[in-house]
Amino acid sequence: MAEGRITMLMQDVINKVKEISEISGYISVVRKPFFSLAGRLTIMIPFFQEIRDVTKHASRNLYEAMTSLLDHLEATKKLLQQGSKGSKIYVVLEREEIMREYETVVAELEEDLRRICFEKLDVSDEVKEQADLVLRQFDRARGKQFDTSADDDLYEDLLFLYHKGSNGVLDPEVFNGVVETLGLTKATALEQESVALSEIVIARGGDRVENIEKMFMVLKHIKDFLHTNNQSVDSSSGDGYVYVRQGIANVINYDNEVIPNEFLCPISLQLMQDPVVISTGQTFERLSIQTWIQAGNGTCPTTRQFLTNTTLIPNYALRDLIVEWCKTNRILDAPKGVSTIAYSCNPVERKFIGIYIRQLECVEHNGHQRKGAGEIYQLTKRNAQIREAIGEAGAIPSLIKALQTTDPETQGYAMSALLNLSICPRNKRRIVEAGAIPKIIDAMNSGSMKVCEDGATILFSLSETDEIRFLIGSHEGIRPLVFLLREGSERGQKDAATALFSLCLIPCNIARAVKFGVVPVLIARLLKGYSPLKDDALALLDMMVSHRDVKLVLLKESPTQRLIQLLLEGSRKNQENAASILLQLSVEDPKYLDEAQRFRIVNYLMYVECFGSEEGKRKANLLLQR
To answer: Which domain holds residue 304?
Structure first.
């Protein structure tokens, strides 16, 4: 067999596996089997590379096996892409057919790999061991039944819409769950879903499309549902595609208008006047992100990625969109360049603020205090000028006193009002100077889960300096945050993780967090099969692991296998964090590497060395050296 042909063929195989390894974002119904299959193939890359480099004359059997493997890898790529970028509705409703296709490609890939006589190839023993490991994994995967019970409700709800058509009446809460689980809440997602369904019709050449037509109707019901919930959706065009205007998520009422979430600064939650892009690609209001960076923060506030530089690039395209939207909706707080009337808190509004503060101070009359707190909370949602006026009028000390009430509704209004007021920098200073921190922490310990969640966000908002971080820690503000991380809703857990990340930038707060049991809680989030908090938990553990108390708990709890799995299954940032934690633990206790070896850590580190980020590669290399 010609030398050049086998080299080219092996390179084609390697390239195809790399393409497969880059596929991500699988739909929940197929996430586990598809992710596992891609991982098994990715581990084989060093094996294929060594065959390419050392094999000069291939036998006919090897050439035929590799040719067949390349064909089946292409089929595998198409299947995995369907589970990632294909129609979500189709994948859920046709999950049994898709899993049959999965079993077919797994069997074909295993057969191709077994046709390669590893023992006759001039490759290293380590690479042969890798190949043998993958073959055993393929053998175990053949016929394995993956648990899909977690998606049964989603399947049943979609099936109901599929069969009942326009006569099907689904509970709005259930419908909302379907839409959010499928990720069809935004305009782009709905359009992609429509395109994906249309591509199935094209691929079938017009045959067997009755079920796809019904799926289009399911998509139309979703569009109608979003429309009735004030997320503007255009009618379908005549070509079978569903076109929508931009969806609105996490909106804020703004004088009876709604501001698209992408126009709001993630830090200040205000309409952006001068949007800029940082090195990680996220957009913020210039003043907000400058304040964040000048406070000594070297990470992105939303993703927690490290900033490679502090250059701020104007986002002119987004600014133009904001300007146009403000013109259309006659919004006053518009970026410069829009002709508007400067808005300030007028005398009538100031008069009402004074009335509400006096009601708030009627501690002997729960009804008056509740009404005052509720009205002030409603005002804090209006705009920045109103929030500043409320702070100037002296409402903050009265709101802090209201946190101590036994009336849960009043307490909730007071905490939510303080949360909104803390967006304003001057109000942050007023809140701290009024001695709010211990009162906020007490309310978090005694109040409802919503009060605890709002309190966590306030603590994060206030914790801009080490002095404030120490103050929060000294008043045992870590305790309710760990509780929220363990028991809270998904939103509450994320709020708690964000606050803890900021507070644990000083070592004494790490010790406090360990004392209140944060490490086992974070480990539990890592061990959970699918947890939306996995990324936050891993980043927080990585940030804390340099503290000896954290290392000792980790060595005792020993989540070694899960950390090693994340080297393969996680994002590049997860790989960095997992490798960093493993490296710190191996430095603390050299015997720790013996346990890691039992889970074949070397194979996973080699994968990170090939495909990880630069920082991930560096840490993987340090571990391999050890």
So the answer is: 264-329
